[in-house]
Amino acid sequence: MPLKEDPSCLGESRQTAIQRLNSLWKRLSRDKEYLSLYEKFLQEYEDLGHMREIKADGSGVSFYMPHHGVYRPEKSTTKMRTVFNASSPSTSGKSLNSIQFNGGLVQEDLFSIMVRFRKHKYAFTTDIEKMFRMINIHPEQTCLQRILWKKGIGEPIKTYELTTVTYGTVSAPYLATRTLKQLAMDEANNFPLAAPVLLSDCYMDDILSGSESIEEVIELQHQLIEMFKTAGMQLHKWCGNLLEITSNLQEYAFWSLRRLKHLE
């Protein structure tokens, strides 16, 4: 994370996180479905190694982020997402977000991307699955991304550290998009079609691209899939105006294959 101030300027933040957790549990205890989704989300975080339990002894610099859930039943994939509040002030008045640079813009503007997208004879869109969470932060900075959680109202509170780029931190968009840019530069020789697309036709975690020939668009799709594999990432939610763009995906065994759509 790009910091503009030394994290030692952060005050105590654990007590606020405890208070918010207790308030959260009052709501969770009244809605079993909400509780189930919340537990499932955080359990997945831990199972994937995106957060780890630690023994906090109170020493050293740390920052605790309160969290809450955003429930969106219309979503076809993640209906409930836990949001981590990196703007919650510590006792010094400073928060994790207030001591970070936002990093600036790395990708092209959306208007330019859309203009190019509309010109393709064969076009497709795809999404980088869990983009932020596929990017690790430096181990020395995970202490700045601590959260609290417990299995029930009367259960002991446990301390965790988030190990990946976290949605809700001001530098997250920069860290993610700069990582994608580096991936494209590193793999340019191995994936000559995919690398330029990642540099010019990607807006946050969405890729909007295409080609003038069926053969090239299928090869581009193949290169994109393989290039992202080198970084441990996957592409999903494919849409296209050509059947071959989506029917060609069977060999990759995407979990979202049943939701593939075609653009009219």
Automatic annotation (TrEMBL):
SUPFAM superfamilies: DNA/RNA polymerases. GO terms for biological process: DNA biosynthetic process. Residues 107-236 form the Reverse transcriptase domain. Gene3D superfamilies: 3.30.70.270, HIV Type 1 Reverse Transcriptase, subunit A, domain 1. It holds the Pfam family RVT_1. Transmembrane segments: none annotated. InterPro entries: DNA/RNA_pol_sf, Rev_trsase/Diguanyl_cyclase, RT_dom. This is Integrase catalytic domain-containing protein. It comes from Trichonephila clavipes (Golden silk orbweaver). The gene is AVEN_96605_1.
